[in-house]
Amino acid sequence: MPQIFSLRTNWNAIFGACPVENALCSFGHAELLLAALVSCMMSFRDVCLSLVLCLPPTTPWGWRRWFLTLFPLNDPGSLRSRRGSSSCKETAQKDQNETAEDQSLSAAMPGPEHQPSQALTKPAFSEPQACALVESMFGLKVAKIQPLPSYDDQNFHVHVPRAPSATGGLSEYVLKVNNSESSKNADLVEVQSCAMMFLKAEGFPTATVHPTKGGNLASLMSIDSGSNTQSYLVRLFTYLPGRPIAQVPVTTKLLYEVGKLAAQMDRTLEKFHHPKISSLQRGDFIWNLRNVPLLEKYSSALGQTPNREMVDQVLKRFKDEIVPKLSSFRECINHGDLNGYNLLVEPSSEASGDAEYRVSGVLDFEDMSRGCYVFELAIAIMYMMIESEGNLAAGGHVLAGFESVVPLTAEERSALFLLVSGRFAQSLVMSAYTCQLYPENKDYLTITAKTGWKHLQKLLDAGQKAVEEIWFETSKSYTQP
Questions:
Q1: How many whole angstroms separate alpha carbon 132 and alpha carbon 74?
Q2: What keywords appear on the UniProt entry (predicted)?
Q3: Closest Cα to residue 467, out of 399, 387, 373, 380?
Q4: What's the sign of the alpha-carbon dihedral 377, 380, 386, 389?
Q5: What is the pLDDT of residues 242-293, one digit of tens each?
Q6: Of the residues 46, 153, 187, 337, which is catalytic?
Q7: What is the C-alpha to C-alpha distance for residues 439 and 441, in angstroms, rounded to an integer?
Q8: Each residue of 361-380: b (16+ CB within 10 Å) or e?
Q9: Burial of residue 104 (number of CB atoms within 10 Å: 0-12, 13-18, 19+)
Q10: Burial of 419 (0-12, 13-18, 19+ CB in 10 A)
């Protein structure tokens, strides 16, 4: 298949350093096409494919659809065609019929190590390019598209007209383009996608994957930037309505529900099976809580500051007190990132008086990995503390919800304080480090850091004994008559 974006470099050679979009605004389509053909000796089809993906937002939609009709983009790197695996629907059906003995999670060997952030390239698709991908790969006509904030992937909110048989209005999706490093592990992406659909079938409010026109879960797009070629996995998810927890008042009832949901998801995922499930053994994946000591590689991003001293304190205690206990924690599959923007809520129908919300959506399974029950709880407590303005008691309400499904062992309880502290360190250190790589994305990358440092300081100042007393007494109050 020709490199779809190869014309970008050639146009820059013709018109200088000006962006393609600006060049298109300055020259007519016919002149651009002729210049590209003469200068680059590209086929008419290659030029059209490149042109349609780079058309400016002002270009009438008819042009894009005309090009795509004549020269449809191929679907070269689908997960099925690359590995001969079945679709998620087929896999999920197979999994439901398998017994627990068929696929042993604990027997899986570690997969490829997670590469640090400096090794990846964040996608930079324009809105017209994203529209072209949706129309060609998924067969949907785009009425409206908007970029969504993201950490190291790229997301778009996509609106498409409903089918004629349905009522009026628009259907909504999320187009997700994985970063270059995640896109190398197609097995992991497939397992994550299938896990989402499995949870949906089990009654959880997760998105589902909209298949490509070929019936695949994802497609691999190769982009020639001149000096090298980057490949990105592209998927389309159903859009989940609701508001992030970070944007609503957080009540004790909602905190309890978050804890309960976290435990229920992990417990339900014990039944999830997939031929590539070993890909969830992610080795040195920096966001897995067992890998908190690896933050030493990145903590220099903090400089010689009091914040660095706090992190060093957490890392030392983690290595001394948590690492020796890791083998005693009960293992499971973790979502791994239940933060205030990955949990959506809607007003509860039971609400009376003060506003009350219920969880209506769980987003972003990119950090899913093989972990431990207490990891999921610690992550949820850390992020809900931030959404509760540092209220230490918030952790107790999350703990109560979690233990209503999965009671902790004595070893897990004794580790909870340092695991929560370790998650604070992970989020804050990697935020600072990633900001150095992508300063243009600073506003999104520093969401946690805006208040996270003071919350970590408050946690450490209070001390483990006092914090545990607050958490455990708050949790205990739920079981008292």
A1: 12
A2: Cytoplasm, Kinase, Transferase
A3: 399
A4: negative
A5: 999 999 999 999 999 999 999 999 999 999 999 999 999 999 899 999 999 9
A6: 337
A7: 5
A8: bbbbbbbbbbbbbbbbbbbb
A9: exposed
A10: buried
Amino acid of residue 463: G
Is 354 one of the annotated active-site residues of the chain?
Answer: no
DSSP SS3 for 78: coil
pLDDT of residue 248: 96
pLDDT band at 8 (very low <50, low <70, confident <90, very high): very low
One-letter amino acid at 251 equals: T
Do you know the residue count of the chain? 481
Q: Which domains does the chain have, with CATH numbers?
A: 7-70 (no CATH), 79-203+206-238 (3.30.200.20), 243-476 (3.90.1200.10)
Which phi and psi angles does 33 have, rounded to 5°?
A: -65, -45
Q: pLDDT at position 74, please?
A: 39
481 three-state secondary structure: coil
DSSP code per residue over 239-284: PPPSEEGGGSPPPHHHHHHHHHHHHHHHHHGGG---TTGGGG--TT
Instruction: Give residue 23's pLDDT.
Output: 30
Contacts (Cβ under 8 Å, ≥6 apart) of 21: 54, 56, 126, 128
DSSP string, 305-344: SHHHHHHHHHHHHIIIIIGGGGGGSPEEEE-----TTTEE
For residue 438, give every residue at least 6 positions away whose Cβ sits within 8 Å of its Cβ, in sequence order, or none. Answer: 122, 152, 445
359: nearest Cα among 373, 374, 347, 375: 347
Q: How far apart are CA 413 and CA 407, in angstroms?
A: 9
User: Are β-strands 229-238 and 331-334 bridged in parallel, bridged antiparallel, or unpaired?
Assistant: unpaired
What are 66's two structure tokens? 């005309």
- Cα radius of gyration rounded to whole Å, the chain: 24
Cβ atoms within 10 A of the Cβ of 38, count? 10
445 or 65, greater pLDDT: 445
Q: What is the pLDDT of the chain when averaged over all its residues?
A: 78
User: Which tokens in the block code for residue 136?
Assistant: 């060609």
Band the pLDDT of 227: cuts 50, 70, 90. Answer: low
38-63 pLDDT tens trace: 334 334 444 444 444 444 434 444 44
